[in-house]
Amino acid sequence: MLITDLQPPHYDDAVQLWEAAGLTRPWNDPEADLLRAVQSPSSTVLGGLIDDELACTAMVGHDGHRGWVYYLAVAEDRRGEGLGGLMMDACEQWLRRQGAVKVQLMIRETNTEVLNFYERLGYERSDVEVRAKWLTTDA
Ligand SMILES: CC(C)(COP(=O)(O)OP(=O)(O)OC[C@H]1O[C@@H](n2cnc3c(N)ncnc32)[C@H](O)[C@@H]1OP(=O)(O)O)[C@@H](O)C(=O)NCCC(=O)NCCS
């Protein structure tokens, strides 16, 4: 598998992969998220290609100190072959090259299936509560 910065011909494939993997939500626009990530110097979207077909993808970015991984998805018929682990590895390497010293990610409370996957890769539970506020409405 070749892991590289995602190129425009595979943008739609990445969005489809995220949708098929259940990572998108009606209130988020994955295509806009993707474009923002690839246009910023502090983030990117990586794609794992097998015979020029997108097998897995992840978004990665940093704030200088902490790195974040989002939208990790492996095509359903490619799961369990180690691709998710390779993609997380590539995200960590990308962050190291950028000078980030820590990597974090958010897991939806309902996505209990992946807890074991991250645990095996050395990701420990953090004792923090994530809070969020929309900036796009006046509410
Ligand atoms: C989570 C996901 C990326 C894992 O990808 P994958 O390619 O199947 O994972 P790997 O084959 O690299 O597995 C790595 C290890 O985690 C384990 N693992 C993977 N998925 C697992 C699961 N659902 N439950 C338990 N263990 C799991 C594997 O057994 C493997 O362990 P091993 O190396 O000792 O054999 C993939 O299942 C996926 O795309 N899920 C849907 C999207 C998603 O939820 N993304 C995460 C958002 S936070």
TrEMBL record:
It comes from the Bacteria. SUPFAM superfamilies: Acyl-CoA N-acyltransferases (Nat). Residues 1-139 form the N-acetyltransferase domain. Keywords: Acyltransferase, Ribonucleoprotein, Ribosomal protein, Transferase. It holds the Pfam family Acetyltransf_1. Gene3D superfamilies: 3.40.630.30. One of its GO terms (molecular function) is acyltransferase activity, transferring groups other than amino-acyl groups. GO terms for cellular component: ribosome. This is Ribosomal protein S18 acetylase RimI-like enzyme. It comes from Arthrobacter pigmenti.
